[in-house]
Specification:
The complex is a heterodimer of chains A (292) and B (340). Chain A has 292 residues and is mainly alpha-helical. Chain A has twelve helices and two strands; from the N terminus they run αββααααααααααα. Chain A starts with 18 loop residues before the first helix and ends with a helix. The model of chain A has no long low-confidence stretch (mean pLDDT 87). Chain B is of the alpha/beta class and 340 residues long. Chain B has two domains: 180 residues, Periplasmic binding protein-like II (D-Maltodextrin-Binding Protein, domain 2, 3-Layer(aba) Sandwich); 151 residues, D-Maltodextrin-Binding Protein, domain 2. Helix content of chain B is 42%, strand content 17%. In chain B, strands 5, 6, 7, 8, 9, 10 and 12 form a seven-stranded mixed β-sheet that branches. The longest helix of chain B is centred in the N-terminal third of the chain and has 20 residues. Chain B is globular, with a radius of gyration of 22 Å. Classes of the chains: A mainly alpha (292), B alpha/beta (340). Chains A and B meet through α3 and α11 of A and α3, β7 and α14 of B.
Chain lengths: 292, 340
């Protein structure tokens, strides 16, 4: 670019981060490089390697691992994981939305107490809480004893080690991650807008669908991301509550690293998994910016 | 500023001297296998601090060793994993002069196929993989794998979440040798296993007894130690060695070639081979104790436990290292399970 042709508009320094800003960002950038970029690159390199007899990584180039990822067996497992995670997200949204909305609307003192209740489960280890669910759902467990004691003449329910148990476990584990972001959006919701909708003759359903939901959409979107992404890779719940019967993609990847000792194939699965998220995220972002 | 520097220097010296003087042992063992009492007793007697880390399968142990994480001084693989490690020169030879209690090991646990000259390994505990039946719920006679995997027992079974074990049971059922695993033999057992997994309710290696105690299943194919604990809890749980043949496993102690604390590792091996210590291991984890002197001081009830000390003739085999076929087994099982 020739200096003479460009209009002499001075570039404002305010929009560029100065060295002070970089200094503030440095810990974060360092953290990202060390724990996201470097491991990601290692994974990428491994995914093109071969394994030796005892599971060491041999640095000889091969496409084989990626060819195997697209084997129908693994595609089916990918598909099933997406389905379970989607179901979990949907249930979390339906169950979590009213809770979050209610908490956001009550007086402040009560609101903080309710929020505390949502977060109380995090004070106990995730694994211990999962084992607690086993005690509830097992054949001679709390739930079946309760049903029996009520004498309803139904049951005992066969719940533990079924897909239902897996979904119960997933919803339980991730529900707070849906409630908290929706609460964040609902709390900021301007009451006068809802009143305006009523004044203009909207029914409660219409006010909800045309005003409240769009305004809390950022919260729903954030919650969806926070639930869907970890749920799809979860392996502990499928092992403990699902009886390790039907593998999810998280189980398959974990097995490649610990049991099958095939790190290159595990790495290839991981890379494809990450790419899937990146692509989905980019598509969602494009849509969001187009509609905005 | 100066005093701060001095303080830091003093701290560094202190930390250094602690690190040099305090004897340590980095033990990498199975979860639910080494009693805390034994670890505490060892530290109390020798002053050696034990850093205990655990794993849930031989494959996990191997993958962590190969990845080079941790400086382990003492590890606890099963016979086939030890054989592989010996072949790959991953183990240090034992200095038997430092382990006088080796004399307590029963002769039948010496000179076995995985370590023919007993150069690298010392047996810790042994056991079998067999069938445990809740006789309150199951009245049929269960004698082998074929009796377990019947359509009427659908969703009433727990089996080990261990691919090599499951393939081995199928090989026995098909009348094939358990240690010759190749494409042809895997193709033969594939339809058998595909039928079996449909009937199983839980796959669990860590604590398969839980599903049986909880009443979620009535029959299991489990480690004998798990079956022995079930029998201690309730005599309705009967242990059966499968008629077709069963895996006899031997879990051993050995020292990685690059272990930093070999002397401490030898001291620990010698300690657990003492009869009174070995008795504690048997009390907490009632597998078959290979220690002759310890067996002499076990209670009659412990020795009468049919899962710990099974009676009668049975075809028992240890696993051999199968090299790359291990990966084929994993692929086969992933295929079959994901088709469910």
């Amino acid at each position: 670019m020739l200096a003479g042709t460009a209009p002499a508009v001075p570039v404002s320094d305010h929009n560029r981060p100065g060295w002070k800003a970089w200094a503030l960002l440095a810990p974060m950038v360092l953290w990202l490089i060390l724990f996201v970029v470097v491991p990601g690159l290692i994974l990428l390199v491994y995914s093109f390697c071969e394994r030796d007899e005892i599971g060491g990584v041999m640095f000889t180039f091969t496409w084989e691992n990626y060819a195997r990822v697209f084997d129908p067996v693994y595609l089916r497992i990918f598909g099933r994981s997406v389905w379970y995670a989607a179901l979990t997200t949907a249930i979390c949204a339906v169950v979590g939305y009213p809770v979050a909305y209610y908490i956001a609307r009550v007086p402040e003192t009560l609101r903080n107490k309710l929020l505390l209740l949502v977060m109380v489960p995090f004070w106990t280890s995730f694994l211990i809480r999962t084992f607690a669910w086993i005690t509830i759902l097992k054949q001679e467990g709390l739930l079946n004893s309760l049903v029996k004691a009520m004498g309803a003449g139904i049951g005992p329910f066969d719940l533990l080690y079924t897909p239902t148990a897996v979904v119960i476990g997933l919803v339980y584990a991730y529900l707070p991650f849906m409630i908290l972001p929706i609460y964040g959006s609902a709390e900021k919701l301007d009451n006068s807008l809802i009143e305006a909708a009523y004044d203009l003759g909207a029914s409660p359903v219409r006010a909800f669908s045309s005003v409240i939901v769009p305004l809390t959409m950022p919260g729903i979107a954030a919650g969806t991301l926070l639930v869907f992404v970890p749920a799809i890779g979860m392996f502990a719940i499928t092992d403990l509550m699902g009886g390790a019967k039907v593998p999810m993609i998280g189980n398959v990847i974990q097995n490649q690293f610990l049991l099958a000792r095939n790190w290159p194939f595990g790495a290839a699965l991981g890379v494809v998994f990450m790419l899937m998220f990146v692509v989905t995220y980019v598509i969602l972002q494009r849509r969001a910016s187009r509609s905005a | 500023m100066k005093s701060l520097k001095q303080l830091l220097l003093a701290l560094a010296v202190l930390a250094g001297s602690l690190g040099l003087n305090a004897a340590e042992l980095n033990l990498f063992g199975w979860s639910e296998y080494v009693p805390q009492d034994v670890l505490d007793g060892f530290t109390k007697e020798t002053g050696i601090k034990v850093n205990f880390e655990t794993y849930a399968s031989n494959e996990e142990l191997l993958s962590k060793l190969v990845a080079g994480g941790g400086n382990y001084d003492l590890i606890q693989p099963s016979e086939y994993a030890a054989e592989l490690m010996i072949r790959r020169k991953m183990l240090a030879p034992l200095d038997k002069a430092q382990i006088p209690n080796l004399k307590n090991v029963a002769p039948e646990f010496k000179g076995l196929a995985h370590d023919p000259k007993d150069e690298f390994t010392v047996p810790y505990m042994s056991g079998t993989v067999g069938i445990v039946v809740n006789t309150d719920k199951v009245k049929d006679s269960i004698r082998g794998y074929k009796d377990v995997f019947q359509a009427k027992f659908k969703d009433r079974l727990v089996v080990l979440d261990d691919n090599r074990e499951i393939v081995t049971w199928a090989l026995y059922t098909a009348g094939l040798p358990a240690n010759e695993i190749n494409a042809a033999s895997l193709a033969k057992v594939r339809p058998i296993i595909a039928q079996w997994v449909k009937l199983v309710k839980v796959f669990d290696s860590g604590s398969p007894k839980t599903a049986l105690i909880n009443g979620d299943v009535d029959i299991g194919i489990v480690w004998s130690g798990e079956a022995a604990l079930l029998w201690n809890e309730d005599k309705k749980f009967k242990y059966v060695l499968p008629a077709e043949g069963a895996h006899r496993f031997i879990d051993i102690f050995c020292i990685p070639a690059d272990a930093p604390h070999k002397k401490e590792a030898h001291a620990f091996i010698n300690y657990i081979l003492r009869p009174d210590v070995s008795k504690i291991i048997s009390r907490d984890f009632p597998y078959t104790n290979p220690n002759v002197e310890a067996r002499k001081i076990l209670s009659p009830e412990e020795l009468a436990n049919p899962a710990s000390y099974p009676a009668g003739p049975a075809k028992l085999e240890t696993f051999r290292d199968i090299g790359k076929a291990a990966a084929d087994i994993d692929e086969l099982m992933t295929d079959i399970k994901s088709a469910l």
